[in-house]
Amino acid sequence: MLSIFDELHLVNNLNYRFQVDSGAHEYIILVCLTSLSLLRSI
Q1: 40 burial level (CB within 10 Å; 0-12, 13-18, 19+)
Q2: What pTM value is reported for the model?
Q3: DSSP label of 21
């Protein structure tokens, strides 16, 4: 399984790939915030 840091690294890579699409950009930010929220709940 990926650690939270690996997931955030992948999110950053996707962010660069899809930065042209503002919709995808917002989705990636939402995923990042969701991941951080899940980390806090552990």
Answers
A1: exposed
A2: 0.41
A3: -
Cβ–Cβ < 8 Å for 39, 6: no
Domain boundaries, the chain: 4-41
Residue with tokens 């915030």: 33
Averaged pLDDT score across all residues of the chain? 76
H helix runs in 1-42, sequence order: 4-17, 22-41
**CA of residue 18 relative to chain centroid, distance:** 12
Structure tokens at 9: 């690294």
Asked if pLDDT for residue 36 goes beyond 60, the answer is yes
Per-residue pLDDT at 3: 78
